[in-house]
Amino acid sequence: MAKENWYSIQHPEHTISPSLLVYPNRIQHNIDLMIAMTGNVNRLRPHVKTYKNANIIKMQMDAGIQKFKCATIAEAELLGDCKAKDVLLAMQPIGPNAERFVELIKKYPNTLFSTIIDNTKSLHVLSKLAHLNAIKISLWIDINNGMNRTGISPDDKALTLYRELYENEHLIAEGLHVYDGHLRNTDPATRESDCNAAFEPVLSLKNNIEKLQIPSPKIVAGGSPTFPYHSKRKDVDASPGTTLLWDSGYGNAFPEMKFLPAAVLMTRILSKPTTGILCFDLGHKSVAPEMPFPRIEFLDLKHSKQISQSEEHLVVEYDDLTIPEVGDVHYAIPKHICPTVAKYDTLTVVKDNQVIDFWPVSARTQKSTI
């Protein structure tokens, strides 16, 4: 294919389908843009859940990023293996995960691990584990500022919880964790206004904590949609994740953010069962299926309409069957990249239209060694 098709690979006959292709030059662009938007690499805490891969972690570390966020113990262990300095597990550890979190701290003494809580029961569980293991555990209070998924409302109950955390001899109060993933208005000005309004109660809570003569809490805030606004706050660490690989969902909703899609699905036509119908080898097992159609955005197949999907197959209506043939290669950007990556053992690395490497998605599993 022509060189201007940045996504295509030469000799695709050597690459299985479906495959998830990644492009280091585009990833580097996205890293550089993240840093430029914050103006201070020390205020970035990117989320690794999107890519779950050591190579992309190391690209960020090479750019000066040392703080990360993750969602699973396996992702945290990967960051420990990469010698990341500061890792926030942004998932309240419950059940056996509380003990696993302690094992993580003990296995990687040179990495500062912290996690989140939103209730006194979790605080007491982690306090007891810290005492039994003769360690101190660093905690953030998870704040619910409107998403209503996890967290505690930034009111007097949150103030009481933070004070109890600060006064606990076995725990370290790090600050406030705020995820506002519900703020996705496609108009940038409206989204910024919504973000600022939702953040006001958090700032009030911070002020009330300071009035108790408690050291001012640090704040980790936002995801990718609100990253442009939290990145402007001098005393806040911004924590985007999808920005590293991007996808068509965010790309179409937030084009002003200028991140580049850096992950592409390579798929083949599996069958042409009847006139006007193409079937691709791109089922539920190969791309995130929770979104309504279209679940992918074809880069080289115009005027197509995705009509059904099953475990192994994606069925598409197409108005010109004179060109596509069974076995033909096509390329598409997933609508939701994070759960799509988790479906692949490896990322196929492409540079200058050549496959140059394979990167393991090593933290896609529920458990690594801990």
From TrEMBL:
InterPro entries: Ala_racemase_N, D-amino_acid_metab_enzyme, D-ser_dehydrat-like_dom, D-ser_dehydrat-like_sf, PLP-binding_barrel. GO terms for biological process: D-serine catabolic process. Transmembrane segments: none annotated. GO terms for molecular function: D-serine ammonia-lyase activity. The keyword Lyase applies. Keywords: Lyase. Residues 262-351 form the D-serine dehydratase-like domain. It comes from the Bacteria. Belongs to the DSD1 family. This is D-serine deaminase, pyridoxal phosphate-dependent. It comes from Maribacter litoralis.
